[in-house]
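Checklist before submission:
- one chain only
- standard amino acids only
- sequence pasted in full

Submission:
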Amino acid sequence: MSLLHQQSNSRRAAFRSVSYRRTLLSIALLLIAWRPLGAWDKIDFDQTPSAKDFPLWDAVILKDQAEMEIQPDGQALLTQHRIMKVFFDPDKRFSHQELPFNGSIQVVSIKARTVHPDGQEFPLDPAEIKEKSLISESVLYSDVRAKDFYLPRVTANCVVEYEYQLRLKTLLYWSDWFFQSDLPCLHSAYTLAVPRGFDFRMKVLNCHLEPQIDFRSGKQVFSWEKFDNSAIAREVFMPPAADSICRLAFSALDFDFDGRAYPCRTWNDVAAWYRQISQSSMQPSPKTAELALGLTSGLDLSRAKIEAVFDYVQEHVRYVSVAIGIGAYQPHLPDEVLENGYGDCKDMTSLIISLLQAVRIEAYPALLSTRGHRSLLTNIPNVKQFDHVVVAVPGDGGYFWLDPACRNCRFGQLPFEDQGASALVVKPGEGELVVIPESAAEENVARTRWEIKLNSDGSAAGRLSLAATGQEELAFRASLTGLKPQRRREALTGYLTSWFIDPYLVRSEFDGFDEKDSSISIEADFLSGAYGVVQGEELFLPVNLNTQNYLSIMFPAERRANPVLFDYRFENQDQIRIVVPPQFEIERLPGAVRLDEPFGLFESTYSAEADTIIHHRLFVRRQLLVPAEQYPQLKEFYDRAAQEDAARIVLRRKSGQR
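Returned file contents:
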């Protein structure tokens, strides 16, 4: 993590040091008129940058260009052309290309080549372009596929070039254009050609660009370009890159879907469209009606019925990760999902709604832009801004949320990716934009209790008790659920080795991991060959026996470009009781510390009762978004907390005791 931060800062400095005169000369010679899918331009290697110009990257993008041509029938042709200078490609991440497509996106053509520094050119053999399924299940998602190919004979300091054309059968797949990526880019350009009178929404985000506007072959043509684009500054806990880099966002005011025209001018339009295409999937069939009645038989309260339906779908339908917009937008029929035993988020959501409708309980699908996705642009209604679907059950002036795709979630519990997310609730006759509530720190608690009896030779016997709630519980479930007992014991032994030498598990119990609606806990009795470090007559004991023993590497960089966006609020409560053997006496205990900031709280105290040392530790994450300007205070807070966690209890052997 520290290395990543250092590289990120160094890369920005290195990019700024590149000679702009040389960069512009490269552009002048290389980035001449674009001839889509025609003859390639000649590459003059003497005018391309070298690895010395970009010492911290394995490649640089010389040109990244796209042309989106909207056609009168509501379809579009998207042509993308990229040229890269590759300095080093050990893992084939630059030579390997994959183009996803589905029933609404057709790959029209692909062309690619590799050019060596000596001028030798190696074109891609069309026979080497393979087609593969992106989803192992071939029944419900047979149209989610990709064209897959490797650029031929990629070597150090070569240039790779590829160009492909896609036919978009609906403007729902009209994507944003990003001027930055994980590599420096000398020239990025986007051209949009639309029929006269075609209306659309667009917005330039995180930069200032004005388009050149022209007319060509009866179409209005908009062109944007940007030179010398730095690579994205990747930092730990950063917001989605799309929220900070230069990009163009588009949305058509009308689009065709499945042979029918739909408006897309308001969020009500988006909701009406989704309700129309998913209506048949949310209606109970005779099979789902019979199932729903059986699941809720004998239950009087609506909440109990909703829970029975949720539990059934969660347990009997396996989640297949297909983000909306990659797979088809239209959910599959509930009978198909039940028969096959799997589905994506929109399939599972529609199935739950159909089952609830069968027992006269109202529920709606809600389209989400999850945490980690880009922030919702409320003034550009567009379904492409969403990447997930959940269930919203109305009641008590708000909504009760269900995410059946979260395998480890309890009834009514949402993963942190859903919390704080913008959601479009698809109600009859309207769409409602809401923000899903976030859980408080006191709802996400991990508690650890250690009882350690130290022996005179430095060995120890101990007991660990651990319990967790909320998101902390989900984190433990994600790590341990599904593991066989032996693998769980091995994982726990590995955890103990962070502080104890040669730990041996005498007893271990993992409660609640196989029962989703039960609280989880871990208890273990163990022996250790040694605890602490002996130096002469002194014994130094570590005190950071907590689930956060990584604080020292959280924020190593002195400066930061992006805000900090944490995943969820939480509390970690830790208590350690160490019984000191009669041969030792307590020489020094660390002092009490309290760090209280708007974004967090850290407390650490020590006390001694007879022969027992007691250490209490509390760490609370209060704030999720910390602006970049407050990073120095945040870093100091974490550094101070890590420093206190690194403190040692010092025992001294009594005179004459061996």
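Reviewer check: Confidence is low (pLDDT under 50) at residues 1-37.
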